[in-house]
Design a protein that fits this description.
It is built from two helices and eleven strands. By secondary structure, the protein is mainly beta.
């Protein structure tokens, strides 16, 4: 069995050599995900770790500084989805500018685009909030999850809980 050759601008490269070159060309971002439009005024990079498997997607929702909007249907200002990974996943949340924000995430393991709950109403899928905020007998408050963005970019780290 020979190595497949691909002709590329009059130079022949093996598939193995092209793959190795691809590692160097595309290795600038070791995180899964992370695609943000260039014209985004403010970018919030959310590093997510602690996934128990690589099934489905990670869905992240961004909320503004109004506590009454937090976790309310139709009140988020941005929503992004990235493929799940057992390694770290990075999600870029486009924001309208500096300010106070809160992020809620869930691991949609079955990719049905819903945050599944059991018959008690407890989460069946992994979830996380900015500041790794925890709630008592429910989700955390906006105040517990809120963080301030001062410039054009911010970075937060969250750990998925199951």
């Amino acid at each position: 069995m020979g190595i497949t050759k691909i002709k590329c601008r009059s130079r022949r490269l093996s598939v193995w050599q092209m793959g190795l070159a691809g590692l160097f060309v595309f290795s600038g971002n070791a995180w899964a995900g992370a695609d943000c439009p260039e014209d985004t005024p403010t970018r919030i990079w959310v590093h997510v770790d602690g996934m128990k498997n690589d099934k489905g997607t990670i869905t992240a929702s961004l909320y503004d500084d109004n506590a009454r909007n937090f976790l309310k249907k139709g009140r988020r200002i941005a929503k992004e989805r990235e493929s799940a990974s057992t390694g770290a996943v990075m999600v870029c949340m486009p924001a309208p500018g500096p300010g106070m924000y809160a992020v809620a995430l869930y691991h949609d393991e079955n990719a049905n685009r819903k945050f599944d709950r059991n018959w008690y109403g407890l989460p069946k899928e992994g979830h996380a909030f900015s500041n790794n905020a925890k709630g008592r007998l429910g989700p955390p408050s906006h105040k517990a999850a809120a963080f301030t963005v001062d410039g054009a970019e911010a970075e937060i780290h969250v750990r998925m809980r199951y």
